[in-house]
Amino acid sequence: MKNERDPIAAWATAPGIGAVGIVRLSGEGCYAIAERVVGSLPAERKASLRSFRAPDGSLIDTGVVIRFCAPRSFTGEDLIEFQGHGSPVAIEHLLETLQRLGARQARPGEFSERAFLNGRMDLTQAEAVADLISAESRAAASAALRSLTGHFSEALRELQSGLESIEVEVEAAIDFAGEEVSIPESSAWLDRLQDLQHKVVALLARSRAGLALRRGCVVVLAGPVNAGKSTLFNRFLGEPRAIVTPVPGTTRDWLEADWVLDGLRVHVIDTAGLRESDDPIEMEGIRRTQSVLQRAHLILYVVDDGQGWREADEIRFATLPKGSVAWKVYSQIDRTGRRPGKVDADAYAVSAETEAGLLELKEAIWIFGQPQTTLAGDVVMARQRHLDALERCLGGLEHALWAEQRGDALELVAEELRHARQALGEILGQRSTEELLGAIFATFCIGK
Ligand SMILES: Nc1nc2c(ncn2[C@@H]2O[C@H](COP(=O)(O)OP(=O)(O)OP(=O)(O)O)[C@@H](O)[C@H]2O)c(=O)[nH]1
Ligand SMILES: [Mg+2]
Q: Which of 62, 95, 123, 357 is 20–30 Å from 377 (CA)?
């Protein structure tokens, strides 16, 4: 993303009538523009009363002007804040004047984007600014603040430097291979690698909980074809949203809906049944199921009790994404006569047809969702892209460990470690593309 420095202006307070209306002006040459509106500028960070005037000398408003000098400003550039009366007419007039004098209307999120590009904050912090503004609960605001003040970035940087030091040792072992130099045993860094892996899993859990604060607790229904997932989905929502038929492979695209369960915001997703298939449409559906599973806080792995728990289910269940909780749900028990309700710690028996056992399952989901949406101590505000990158980081660490255990070449281990570290860098915006930044900042509000 090119680092533009031209002066930009925008309304910084919420649009509409208010006690105070703030306009921000930032970029190269912004002092000269501001001087033509208010006369002399006050000293740095000193609030002073001024008249705001149009080029023809007519009065626009009176208010406080504050000057921030680069790099000690929100954007890291020279910046002026005009704090006038909250009159939409006066504010529009002021903005029009600033534009006539050479400033450009800021794009949504452009102030934050500049703050990021000028190193005032990393990408997770810039995102946290937007998340704080749009937080719908105190818990969400508090998690956003935790990210904004750097808790998330710190944890990521710690992981990065831990990984870096392991990489150095692995590289050294590669360089000195075969020479008569004593190199550290691999067990020295293996332990640390495992330790890092646990830390990534823990951070993933904190981030997932943060995402839940924004989106609600995400529950995904998955499992083999014809298990009764869509029927259960419809029962949860209380309406026939998903198509249900006796044909295996009915659901192709995944379906999602918001479900309020006794005051708990749940985002529930129905997916295509999992099986070996040659049908390209169904294969695509199954591929999508796999990607949707990455978003889950809770996975309900549904099987038809009549078919029972099969070996393929065991394998799929064991390879569900780490960091989310998975329960087994034996469905259609009206046809098998199994006792409804809790089977064991993480298994439930239900009938979507007769609703037997549904109450217990819903209660369990409700209890599960609670810590995710209440003020858990160290939750950090996160976004889907953070979770995706953390999952990729974890994948890299796992591959590195496997490669080591299999006795593969150390070059392979080093390569996997590098991937893992790069994934962390992406979250912080250290390796960001113009497209990614554009997509992130475009969702911000204007003036932020
Ligand atoms: N008796 C009985 N039949 C059920 C129950 N749940 C689902 N069924 C039937 O089982 C068949 C498959 O149900 P679906 O809900 O479409 O199953 P699914 O898991 O979504 O299947 P796919 O979308 O193909 O993966 C349908 O004929 C349903 O009517 C149940 O609890 N009891
Ligand atoms: Mg279905």
A: 123
Q: How far is the CA of 328 from the centre of ligand 1 (A)?
A: 16
Exposure on the CB side of residue 189, measured as CA atoms within 13 A: 25
Q: Given pLDDT bands bounded at 50, 70 and 90, which one contains residue 67?
A: very high
Global pTM value:
0.68
Q: How many CB atoms lie within 10 A of CB 299?
A: 25
- Between 136 and 410, residue with greater pLDDT: 410
Ligand 1, from 221, 226, 271: best to mutate by most atoms within 8 Å of Cβ?
A: 226
Contact 55, 100 (CB under 8 A): yes
CATH number of this structure's domain 216-373: 3.40.50.300
Q: Domain 8-122 maps to which CATH number in 3.40.30.10, 3.30.1360.120, 3.60.20.10, 3.40.1110.10?
A: 3.30.1360.120
Ligand 2 centroid to 296 CA: how many Å? 18
Ligand 1 site, CB within 6 A: 225-231, 244-246, 248-251, 272-273, 331-332, 334-335, 351-353
- Phi and psi at 5, nearest 5°, equal -125, 5
Q: Read off the pLDDT of residues 300-336 as tens digits, 9 standing for 90 and up.
A: 999 999 999 999 999 999 999 877 899 999 999 999 9
Based on its alpha-carbon atoms, the radius of gyration of the chain, rounded to whole angstroms, reads 28
Q: Give me the CATH code for the 151-209+385-427 domain, please.
A: 1.20.120.430
Predicted pLDDT of residue 346: 92
Place of tokens 């929502």: 237
Give residue 248's identity as a one-letter amino acid code.
P
